[in-house]
Amino acid sequence: MSSNEGTGVTIATRDIDAAVTRIIGRIEGPVPGPVLVCVAGMHGNEPAGVEALTRVLDTLTVEGYRIEGTFVALRGNQAAIAKHVRFIDSDLNRHWTRERLGRVTLDREPDPAVSEDADLLELHDVISEILDQAIGESYLIDVHTTSGRSAPFGTVGDTLRNRRFAMQLPLPLIMGLEEHLEGTMLEFFNDQGHVTLGLEGGQHEDASSVDRIEAAVWLALEAAGMLPDSRAATRLADARTFLARLSRNLPRVLEVRHRHFVGPNDRFAMRPGYASFQGVTANEHVADDECGSVTAPETGLILMPLYQPAGDDGFFITREFSPFWLSVSALLRRLHVDNVLPWMPGITRDPSHGGTLLVNGRVARWFALEVFHLLGYRKRRQMGDVLVVTRRREGGKAVRR
Ligand SMILES: [Zn+2]
């Protein structure tokens, strides 16, 4: 551990080795404060995030900016990064389910047949330990890139705290993605009470994806209140201008309306030429698979069209979520309007889990999922006529001091 005299910045760890070690780097300010953890390479064929985080760490070190709290950058799927593939045995970003984590963290013996199990255990332990050290807020960012062309964007689990953090970055924000994906790292840590953000930089091989992620991480440090150093002002202003220009003509907030799931034997092939945020119309022929042509189920903006063999998300359809409804939902949540829900006909509270509601679709048919979204709930599953929704955790984590 070396102390950078005069700046108050302490550099604890700095790994410059090949893509084999977990910690890319760690920088601690002179006093404890907020914590920002960034994970890159959750998918091993997405090296831009590791490169961008390395740059930010290098600049923080060379310029000697004073930071408050702790900034840590980690690698995700180490074996997959070394081989430059999305994953070895299965997608590490689908491993974070209660069942699998329960088994792995309890047994402390990862399944040797699944390469990603060891990463899961180590990442879980490392990230939990760092985030729990936060005095004040704790932030976790998962950095990705896409196989198709894309403007940079953020993804948020829709809590007011996540929104507040993410809205400080000049990027389009996607809400509701997690409802379509089981077992993501961000969903797990969000449920633990941490503020989380997914960051998509652009196409895997596009050199500018590194610049975009780097800019977004600088602004995230600022948004977390960790970069009060006035010498960083120009850098932050440049980062803001750069990202704002890229998202100039895009909606501020979008919601996911549809996910096209791709099975292992579907022989899914996206038709060429689609990029994220490109408009598509209902019934437009966007891809082909085993069964023939795949069409867009509704009009909207396409997101993350799949142009690589690995992955089970063919594409998503999104649409703009108006600022008006954003404000309405924030107000409804602050007023705790959802407290009256269990009094409504057809809605009961799950006795084993206070934050979960069981909605009988035959009785409460006038209650659309959109209403629960506004009130801060996410869909868990549909069981026959019963829709199961869970309130996203809004409060902070239990702080250990
Ligand atoms: Zn990814």
Mean pLDDT figure: 86
Number of domains: 3
The CATH class of the largest domain: Alpha Beta
CATH architecture of the largest domain: 3-Layer(aba) Sandwich
Distance N to C terminus: 23 Å
| Total helical elements | 10
Low-confidence stretches: 1-19
Rg is 21 Å
Q: Give the structural class.
A: alpha+beta
What's the β-strand tally? 20
The molecules bound to the chains, other than polymers, are: zinc ion
Q: What is the 3D shape?
A: globular
CATH superfamily of the largest domain: Zn peptidases
Walk across the major sheet and give the strand order. Answer: 1-2-3-5-4-6-9-7-8-10-16-15-12
CATH domain fold name of the largest domain? Aminopeptidase
Textual characterization of the structure:
The chain is an alpha+beta fold. The protein has three domains: 2-246, Aminopeptidase (3-Layer(aba) Sandwich), CATH 3.40.630.10; 253-320, Beta Barrel (OB fold (Dihydrolipoamide Acetyltransferase, E2P)); 323-391, no CATH class. It is built from ten helices and 20 strands. The protein has helices at 48-63, 78-83, 98-107, 115-131, 160-166, 185-191, 207-223, 233-246, 323-334, 369-374, and strands at residues 2-4, 9-14, 23-28, 35-40, 70-75, 138-146, 153-156, 173-175, 195-203, 253-261, 269-270, 278-280, 285-289, 292-295, 300-303, 313-320, 347-349, 356-360, 377-383, 386-391. Strands 1-2-3-5-4-6-9-7-8-10-16-15-12 form a 13-stranded mixed beta sheet, with helices on both faces. A four-stranded antiparallel beta sheet has the order 17-18-20-19. Strands 11-13-14 form a three-stranded antiparallel beta sheet, with no helix packed on it. Helix 5 (160-166) links the parallel strand 7 and strand 8. Helix 1 (48-63) crosses helix 7 (207-223) and helix 7 (207-223) crosses helix 8 (233-246). The model is unreliable at 1-19 (pLDDT under 50). The structure holds zinc ion. Zinc ion is lined by residues 42-43, 46, 144.
